[in-house]
Design a protein that fits this description.
By secondary structure, the protein is of the alpha+beta class. The chain contains 10 helices and 4 strands; from the N terminus they run βαβαββαααααααα. Strands 2-1-3-4 form a 4-stranded mixed beta sheet, covered by helices on one side. Helix 1 (about 15-25) runs parallel beside helix 3 (about 65-75). It binds glutathione. The site of glutathione has 10 residues, from helix 3.
Amino acid sequence: MPKYMLVSFKTCPWVQRAAIVLREKNTPFEFRHIDRDNRPDWFLAISPHKKVPVLRIDDKVSLFESNAINEYLDETIAPRLHPDDPVERAINRAWTDYVPTFSEQVTGQAYADDEAAYKASIEKIPVAFERLERALEKQGAGPLFNGAKYSLVDAAYAPFLQRYFYLDRIKPIGLIGKYPRLKIWADTLMQRPSTHSFPQPEFEALYRVNVKLRKKYLSQFIADQAVAAE
Ligand SMILES: N[C@@H](CCC(=O)N[C@@H](CS)C(=O)NCC(=O)O)C(=O)O
């Protein structure tokens, strides 16, 4: 089996998405956490956009962009997570393409400068939630995106749904309960061991420290903590 190294910032959701797929495929990999503010030269040489994740394979090949990495992993390591049916596969890819918009609409409040911007960003959440609720309704029985079988769509959304829950615990939003299919999906993903790269309380604490240090509107709702941010 090839040797995989996943270059990461500890709290990056896009890295988490690739790590989830590696875990779903029971594939051992080395996590290499680097400092966002001091990215090493070896990393800059293999990351065209200077971003994480980068998946390094056998110390020879470097893949970047979480979606491309996950498609590669799915083509090369069993079990296949994409559906066999080409139409279903296209639908899965289409919903995976929505993830960057979903992430901006559902976790954008973490970057709001003031109360007005925070309120405006909260108003975007129902748009994204409603779209996913309708998509889940069309997909069928749940609890995962394609029903019982885990998919790349599940891996793509899990980190952002997790951050929604974290943000909801910083300052309650209370919207997800209005979308029953989405809520079941999100709860199922939160309970799934592959979602988590770190022990849950430790990771949530780290996330809260990052939001606190960002000095945005939400920072004031997080008590000072002794955890060092990474
Ligand atoms: N579209 C990229 C997004 C990756 C991304 O934004 N990574 C962030 C960390 S979570 C990053 O490396 N940011 C550094 C920068 O923008 O300079 C992917 O899916 O891999």
